[in-house]
Protein backbone atom coordinates (compact mmCIF):
# COMPACT_ATOMS: atom_id res chain seq x y z
CA UNK A 1 0.00 0.00 0.00
CA UNK A 2 1.49 3.34 -1.09
CA UNK A 3 0.68 5.86 1.64
CA UNK A 4 1.78 9.44 2.16
CA UNK A 5 4.10 8.41 4.98
CA UNK A 6 5.50 5.70 2.72
CA UNK A 7 6.11 8.40 0.11
CA UNK A 8 7.90 10.57 2.67
CA UNK A 9 5.66 13.56 2.21
CA UNK A 10 4.68 16.36 4.53
CA UNK A 11 2.48 19.35 3.63
CA UNK A 12 3.34 21.35 0.53
CA UNK A 13 4.18 24.63 2.17
CA UNK A 14 4.06 26.72 -0.97
CA UNK A 15 0.27 26.46 -1.26
CA UNK A 16 -0.76 27.72 2.16
CA UNK A 17 -0.74 31.44 1.48
CA UNK A 18 -2.98 31.19 -1.57
CA UNK A 19 -5.67 29.19 0.23
CA UNK A 20 -6.02 31.29 3.36
CA UNK A 21 -9.62 32.34 3.91
CA UNK A 22 -11.07 29.31 2.12
CA UNK A 23 -11.46 25.66 3.03
CA UNK A 24 -7.89 24.42 3.47
CA UNK A 25 -7.21 20.96 2.03
CA UNK A 26 -3.68 19.66 2.35
CA UNK A 27 -1.89 16.40 1.61
CA UNK A 28 -1.11 15.40 5.18
CA UNK A 29 1.41 12.66 5.78
CA UNK A 30 -0.14 11.76 9.09
CA UNK A 31 -3.33 10.54 7.46
CA UNK A 32 -1.33 7.45 6.53
CA UNK A 33 -0.38 6.55 10.09
CA UNK A 34 -2.35 3.31 10.05
CA UNK A 35 -1.75 -0.36 9.56
CA UNK A 36 -1.57 -1.89 6.06
CA UNK A 37 -4.76 -3.33 4.64
CA UNK A 38 -5.64 -6.02 2.14
CA UNK A 39 -4.33 -5.00 -1.27
CA UNK A 40 -7.76 -5.61 -2.85
CA UNK A 41 -9.63 -3.57 -0.25
CA UNK A 42 -10.42 0.13 -0.47
CA UNK A 43 -8.88 2.13 2.37
CA UNK A 44 -9.47 5.79 3.10
CA UNK A 45 -8.57 8.48 5.60
CA UNK A 46 -9.96 11.88 6.51
CA UNK A 47 -8.37 14.61 8.60
CA UNK A 48 -10.10 17.66 10.04
CA UNK A 49 -8.84 20.45 12.23
CA UNK A 50 -7.94 24.11 12.36
CA UNK A 51 -4.94 26.08 11.14
CA UNK A 52 -3.52 29.57 10.91
CA UNK A 53 -2.24 31.01 7.62
CA UNK A 54 -1.31 34.37 6.02
CA UNK A 55 -4.18 36.52 4.79
CA UNK A 56 -2.62 36.64 1.29
CA UNK A 57 0.67 35.57 -0.25
CA UNK A 58 3.21 38.00 1.18
CA UNK A 59 1.01 39.20 4.06
CA UNK A 60 2.06 39.61 7.68
CA UNK A 61 -1.57 39.38 8.80
CA UNK A 62 -2.83 35.92 9.78
CA UNK A 63 -6.22 34.31 10.02
CA UNK A 64 -7.73 31.06 11.23
CA UNK A 65 -8.65 28.61 8.47
CA UNK A 66 -10.24 25.15 8.36
CA UNK A 67 -7.91 22.20 7.91
CA UNK A 68 -9.33 19.34 5.83
CA UNK A 69 -7.66 16.45 4.03
CA UNK A 70 -8.77 13.12 2.56
CA UNK A 71 -7.24 10.19 0.74
CA UNK A 72 -8.53 6.93 -0.73
CA UNK A 73 -6.45 3.97 -1.98
CA UNK A 74 -7.21 0.84 -3.96
CA UNK A 75 -4.72 -1.67 -5.38
CA UNK A 76 -1.87 0.85 -5.25
CA UNK A 77 -3.89 3.62 -6.90
CA UNK A 78 -4.95 6.68 -4.93
CA UNK A 79 -7.01 9.86 -4.96
CA UNK A 80 -6.22 12.62 -2.46
CA UNK A 81 -6.73 16.28 -1.75
CA UNK A 82 -4.25 18.77 -3.19
CA UNK A 83 -4.84 22.37 -2.25
CA UNK A 84 -8.55 22.97 -2.77
CA UNK A 85 -8.81 20.14 -5.25
CA UNK A 86 -7.69 16.63 -6.06
CA UNK A 87 -4.77 14.69 -7.42
CA UNK A 88 -4.64 11.06 -8.52
CA UNK A 89 -1.83 8.53 -8.52
CA UNK A 90 -2.40 6.23 -11.48
CA UNK A 91 0.71 4.05 -11.14
CA UNK A 92 0.38 0.99 -8.84
CA UNK A 93 4.07 0.96 -7.92
CA UNK A 94 5.32 1.91 -4.44
CA UNK A 95 8.43 3.64 -5.83
CA UNK A 96 6.61 5.81 -8.41
CA UNK A 97 3.76 8.32 -8.19
CA UNK A 98 2.28 9.84 -11.37
CA UNK A 99 -1.03 11.46 -12.22
CA UNK A 100 -3.16 14.56 -12.84
CA UNK A 101 -4.01 17.51 -10.59
CA UNK A 102 -7.13 19.70 -10.72
CA UNK A 103 -7.66 22.34 -8.04
CA UNK A 104 -9.33 25.64 -7.29
CA UNK A 105 -6.96 28.62 -7.43
CA UNK A 106 -8.02 31.35 -4.98
CA UNK A 107 -7.37 34.92 -6.05
CA UNK A 108 -6.82 37.98 -3.86
CA UNK A 109 -9.69 40.17 -2.72
CA UNK A 110 -10.95 41.75 0.52
CA UNK A 111 -7.64 41.40 2.37
CA UNK A 112 -6.95 43.00 5.74
CA UNK A 113 -4.25 45.40 4.53
CA UNK A 114 -6.02 48.56 3.42
CA UNK A 115 -3.52 49.54 0.71
CA UNK A 116 -3.13 46.06 -0.81
CA UNK A 117 -6.91 45.79 -0.82
CA UNK A 118 -7.05 48.80 -3.17
CA UNK A 119 -5.05 46.97 -5.84
CA UNK A 120 -6.85 45.26 -8.68
CA UNK A 121 -8.61 42.07 -7.64
CA UNK A 122 -6.93 38.80 -8.67
CA UNK A 123 -9.77 36.56 -9.83
CA UNK A 124 -10.09 33.01 -8.62
CA UNK A 125 -9.62 30.27 -11.21
CA UNK A 126 -8.77 26.64 -11.81
CA UNK A 127 -5.29 25.08 -11.99
CA UNK A 128 -4.70 21.93 -14.03
CA UNK A 129 -1.49 19.95 -14.29
CA UNK A 130 0.28 16.87 -13.08
CA UNK A 131 2.78 15.40 -10.64
CA UNK A 132 5.50 12.79 -10.66
CA UNK A 133 7.42 11.42 -7.71
CA UNK A 134 10.02 8.83 -6.79
CA UNK A 135 10.56 7.25 -3.39
CA UNK A 136 13.03 4.90 -1.76
CA UNK A 137 12.28 2.95 1.39
CA UNK A 138 14.87 2.73 4.15
CA UNK A 139 17.81 4.28 2.23
CA UNK A 140 19.72 4.97 5.47
CA UNK A 141 18.74 1.84 7.31
CA UNK A 142 16.65 3.79 9.83
CA UNK A 143 13.21 2.59 8.73
CA UNK A 144 12.48 5.85 6.92
CA UNK A 145 11.42 6.75 3.39
CA UNK A 146 12.99 9.38 1.12
CA UNK A 147 11.07 10.98 -1.75
CA UNK A 148 11.47 13.47 -4.57
CA UNK A 149 8.43 15.07 -6.21
CA UNK A 150 7.70 17.49 -9.06
CA UNK A 151 4.36 19.24 -9.52
CA UNK A 152 3.50 21.52 -12.46
CA UNK A 153 0.17 23.34 -12.82
CA UNK A 154 -1.23 26.08 -15.07
CA UNK A 155 -4.26 28.28 -14.39
CA UNK A 156 -6.88 27.81 -17.13
CA UNK A 157 -10.02 29.71 -16.12
CA UNK A 158 -9.31 33.47 -16.20
CA UNK A 159 -7.72 33.62 -12.75
CA UNK A 160 -4.07 34.54 -12.27
CA UNK A 161 -3.33 33.06 -15.71
CA UNK A 162 0.12 31.77 -14.79
CA UNK A 163 2.06 28.58 -14.22
CA UNK A 164 4.01 27.22 -11.27
CA UNK A 165 6.42 24.32 -10.83
CA UNK A 166 7.24 22.99 -7.38
CA UNK A 167 10.03 20.56 -6.50
CA UNK A 168 10.06 18.96 -3.06
CA UNK A 169 12.21 16.42 -1.25
CA UNK A 170 10.80 14.54 1.71
CA UNK A 171 11.88 12.26 4.52
CA UNK A 172 9.48 10.30 6.72
CA UNK A 173 10.46 8.14 9.67
CA UNK A 174 8.75 6.38 12.58
CA UNK A 175 10.03 7.83 15.87
CA UNK A 176 8.27 5.16 17.94
CA UNK A 177 5.66 2.55 17.20
CA UNK A 178 2.90 5.19 17.38
CA UNK A 179 4.71 8.45 16.65
CA UNK A 180 5.72 9.40 13.09
CA UNK A 181 7.45 12.41 11.58
CA UNK A 182 7.43 13.53 7.95
CA UNK A 183 9.46 16.52 6.75
CA UNK A 184 10.01 18.18 3.40
CA UNK A 185 11.91 21.01 1.75
CA UNK A 186 10.58 22.64 -1.40
CA UNK A 187 11.12 25.34 -3.96
CA UNK A 188 8.64 26.96 -6.36
CA UNK A 189 9.17 28.62 -9.74
CA UNK A 190 6.42 30.94 -11.03
CA UNK A 191 5.78 32.39 -14.49
CA UNK A 192 5.55 36.06 -15.48
CA UNK A 193 1.74 35.92 -15.42
CA UNK A 194 1.57 34.48 -11.93
CA UNK A 195 4.14 36.91 -10.54
CA UNK A 196 2.56 39.96 -12.16
CA UNK A 197 -0.91 38.97 -10.92
CA UNK A 198 0.06 38.64 -7.25
CA UNK A 199 3.12 40.87 -6.92
CA UNK A 200 3.09 43.38 -9.79
CA UNK A 201 1.67 46.90 -9.44
CA UNK A 202 0.77 48.92 -12.53
CA UNK A 203 0.20 52.67 -12.75
CA UNK A 204 -3.50 52.36 -11.96
CA UNK A 205 -2.76 50.21 -8.92
CA UNK A 206 -0.11 52.63 -7.72
CA UNK A 207 -2.52 55.56 -8.05
CA UNK A 208 -5.25 53.71 -6.15
CA UNK A 209 -3.08 52.37 -3.36
CA UNK A 210 -0.22 54.82 -2.98
CA UNK A 211 2.28 51.99 -3.42
CA UNK A 212 5.05 52.30 -6.00
CA UNK A 213 4.77 50.67 -9.39
CA UNK A 214 6.50 47.32 -9.64
CA UNK A 215 7.07 44.81 -12.43
CA UNK A 216 7.30 41.23 -11.20
CA UNK A 217 9.04 38.78 -13.53
CA UNK A 218 9.23 34.99 -13.59
CA UNK A 219 11.70 33.22 -11.36
CA UNK A 220 12.12 31.25 -8.15
CA UNK A 221 9.22 32.46 -6.03
CA UNK A 222 9.91 30.73 -2.73
CA UNK A 223 11.63 28.01 -0.77
CA UNK A 224 10.10 26.29 2.21
CA UNK A 225 10.15 23.67 4.92
CA UNK A 226 7.26 21.60 6.24
CA UNK A 227 6.79 19.04 8.99
CA UNK A 228 3.96 16.77 10.05
CA UNK A 229 3.97 14.92 13.36
CA UNK A 230 1.33 12.28 13.97
CA UNK A 231 0.51 10.12 16.96
CA UNK A 232 -1.70 7.06 16.50
CA UNK A 233 -4.02 6.48 19.45
CA UNK A 234 -5.45 3.41 17.76
CA UNK A 235 -5.21 1.78 14.33
CA UNK A 236 -7.93 4.20 13.16
CA UNK A 237 -7.44 7.48 15.07
CA UNK A 238 -4.40 9.78 15.01
CA UNK A 239 -3.61 13.29 16.22
CA UNK A 240 -1.87 15.50 13.67
CA UNK A 241 0.35 18.54 14.11
CA UNK A 242 1.56 20.57 11.12
CA UNK A 243 4.13 23.34 10.77
CA UNK A 244 5.36 25.10 7.67
CA UNK A 245 7.67 27.98 6.81
CA UNK A 246 8.01 29.60 3.39
CA UNK A 247 10.51 32.31 2.45
CA UNK A 248 9.50 34.42 -0.53
CA UNK A 249 12.37 35.25 -2.88
CA UNK A 250 13.20 37.50 -5.81
CA UNK A 251 10.42 39.75 -7.06
CA UNK A 252 7.94 38.05 -4.74
CA UNK A 253 9.95 39.36 -1.78
CA UNK A 254 10.84 42.73 -3.35
CA UNK A 255 7.28 43.66 -4.35
CA UNK A 256 5.69 46.46 -2.28
CA UNK A 257 2.89 43.99 -1.54
CA UNK A 258 5.44 42.03 0.50
CA UNK A 259 8.34 44.38 1.25
CA UNK A 260 6.33 47.48 2.22
CA UNK A 261 3.09 46.01 3.50
CA UNK A 262 3.79 42.41 4.49
CA UNK A 263 6.66 40.01 5.05
CA UNK A 264 8.67 37.51 2.99
CA UNK A 265 8.49 35.10 5.95
CA UNK A 266 5.30 33.07 5.70
CA UNK A 267 4.23 30.67 8.44
CA UNK A 268 1.54 28.02 8.76
CA UNK A 269 0.49 25.85 11.67
CA UNK A 270 -2.37 23.47 12.31
CA UNK A 271 -3.78 20.75 14.54
CA UNK A 272 -6.22 18.05 13.58
CA UNK A 273 -7.57 14.55 14.07
CA UNK A 274 -7.29 11.83 11.46
CA UNK A 275 -9.55 8.79 11.02
CA UNK A 276 -8.69 5.87 8.78
CA UNK A 277 -11.18 3.24 7.68
Descriptive report:
The protein is mainly beta. It has a single domain, classed as Beta Barrel (Porin), CATH 2.40.160. Helix content is 12%, strand content 49%. The protein has six helices and 13 strands. The protein has helices at residues 4-7, 16-19, 192-199, 203-209, 250-254, 256-259; strands at residues 24-25, 42-54, 62-74, 77-81, 84-89, 96-105, 125-137, 145-155, 163-174, 179-190, 219-232, 237-248, 265-276. Strands 2-3-4-5-6-7-8-9-10-11-12-13 form a twelve-stranded antiparallel barrel. Strand 4 and strand 5 form a beta hairpin. The longest helix is centred in the C-terminal third of the chain and has 8 residues, at 192-199. The radius of gyration is 19 Å and the shape is elongated. The two termini are 14 Å apart. The relative contact order is 0.21.
Brief account:
The protein is mostly beta strands and 277 residues long. The protein has helices spanning 4-7, 16-19, 192-199, 203-209, 250-254, 256-259, and strands at residues 24-25, 42-54, 62-74, 77-81, 84-89, 96-105, 125-137, 145-155, 163-174, 179-190, 219-232, 237-248, 265-276.
Broad shape: elongated
CATH hierarchy: architecture: Beta Barrel
Q: Count the DSSP helices.
A: 6
Instruction: Briefly note the structural class of the backbone.
Output: mainly beta
Radius of gyration: 19 Å
Mean pLDDT: 88
Query: In the residues, how many domains can be counted?
Result: 1
CATH topology name? Porin
Write the element-wise H/E pattern from the N-terminal end onward: HHEEEEEEEEEEHHEEHHE
Give the neighbour order of strands across the main sheet: 2-3-4-5-6-7-8-9-10-11-12-13
CATH homologous superfamily? Answer: monomeric porin ompg
Q: Can you summarize the main beta sheet?
A: 12 strands, antiparallel, barrel
- What is the top-level CATH class? Mainly Beta
Q: Spans with pLDDT under 50 lasting ≥5 residues? A: 1-6, 10-14, 16-26, 28-36
Strand content: over 45%
Beginning-to-end CA distance, first to last residue: 14 Å
Helix content: 10-25%
Number of strands: 13
Amino acid sequence: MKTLVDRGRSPAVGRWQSVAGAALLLPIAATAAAQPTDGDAVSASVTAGVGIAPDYEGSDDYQIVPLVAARAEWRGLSLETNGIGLQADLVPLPQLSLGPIVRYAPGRDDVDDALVDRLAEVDSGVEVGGHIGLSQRDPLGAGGVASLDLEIVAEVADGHGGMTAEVSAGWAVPLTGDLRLATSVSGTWASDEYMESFFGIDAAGAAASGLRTFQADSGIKDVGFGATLSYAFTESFSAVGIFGYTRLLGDAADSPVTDDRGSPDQLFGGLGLSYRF
